[in-house]
């Protein structure tokens, strides 16, 4: 029986290079993060894994232009979030 953990991080990025952006998304998924927007993920990782993920992303990005932000959050902040999620009916 698995216990669902409250997300403790938000990771967002703005990267021009399509190939690198795709690789970074794949790494986020490999670490079990959930995609909430095209370039935004949430999930739960211990701090050592957060650092490991960020190091991998830094390596993938290299010297290419881009902005990546990993924001640690606490359970209280997660509970306070507000969401509008309306499906596309088109």
TrEMBL record:
<keyword id="KW-0540">Nuclease</keyword>
<keyword id="KW-0460">Magnesium</keyword>
<keyword id="KW-0051">Antiviral defense</keyword>
<comment type="function">
    <text>CRISPR (clustered regularly interspaced short palindromic repeat), is an adaptive immune system that provides protection against mobile genetic elements (viruses, transposable elements and conjugative plasmids). CRISPR clusters contain sequences complementary to antecedent mobile elements and target invading nucleic acids. CRISPR clusters are transcribed and processed into CRISPR RNA (crRNA). Functions as a ssRNA-specific endoribonuclease. Involved in the integration of spacer DNA into the CRISPR cassette.</text>
</comment>
<dbReference type="Pfam" id="PF09827">
    <property type="entry name" value="CRISPR_Cas2"/>
</dbReference>
<dbReference type="GO" id="GO:0043571">
    <property type="term" value="P:maintenance of CRISPR repeat elements"/>
</dbReference>
<dbReference type="GO" id="GO:0051607">
    <property type="term" value="P:defense response to virus"/>
</dbReference>
<keyword id="KW-0479">Metal-binding</keyword>
<protein>
    <recommendedName>
        <fullName>CRISPR-associated endoribonuclease Cas2</fullName>
        <ecNumber>3.1.-.-</ecNumber>
    </recommendedName>
</protein>
<dbReference type="InterPro" id="IPR021127">
    <property type="entry name" value="CRISPR_associated_Cas2"/>
</dbReference>
<keyword id="KW-0378">Hydrolase</keyword>
<dbReference type="GO" id="GO:0004521">
    <property type="term" value="F:RNA endonuclease activity"/>
</dbReference>
<dbReference type="GO" id="GO:0016787">
    <property type="term" value="F:hydrolase activity"/>
</dbReference>
<feature type="binding site">
    <location>
        <position position="14"/>
    </location>
    <ligand>
        <name>Mg(2+)</name>
    </ligand>
</feature>
<dbReference type="GO" id="GO:0046872">
    <property type="term" value="F:metal ion binding"/>
</dbReference>
<comment type="similarity">
    <text>Belongs to the CRISPR-associated endoribonuclease Cas2 protein family.</text>
</comment>
<comment type="subunit">
    <text>Homodimer, forms a heterotetramer with a Cas1 homodimer.</text>
</comment>
<keyword id="KW-0255">Endonuclease</keyword>
<dbReference type="InterPro" id="IPR019199">
    <property type="entry name" value="Virulence_VapD/CRISPR_Cas2"/>
</dbReference>
């Amino acid at each position: 029986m698995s216990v669902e953990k409250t997300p403790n991080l938000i990771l967002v990025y703005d990267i021009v290079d399509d190939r690198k952006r795709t690789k970074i998304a794949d790494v986020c998924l490999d670490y079990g993060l959930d995609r909430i927007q095209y370039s935004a993920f949430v999930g739960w990782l211990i701090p050592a894994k957060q650092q490991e993920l960020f190091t991998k992303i830094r390596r993938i990005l290299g010297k290419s232009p881009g902005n990546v932000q990993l924001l640690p959050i606490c359970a209280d902040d997660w509970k306070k979030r507000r969401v509008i999620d309306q499906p596309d009916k088109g």
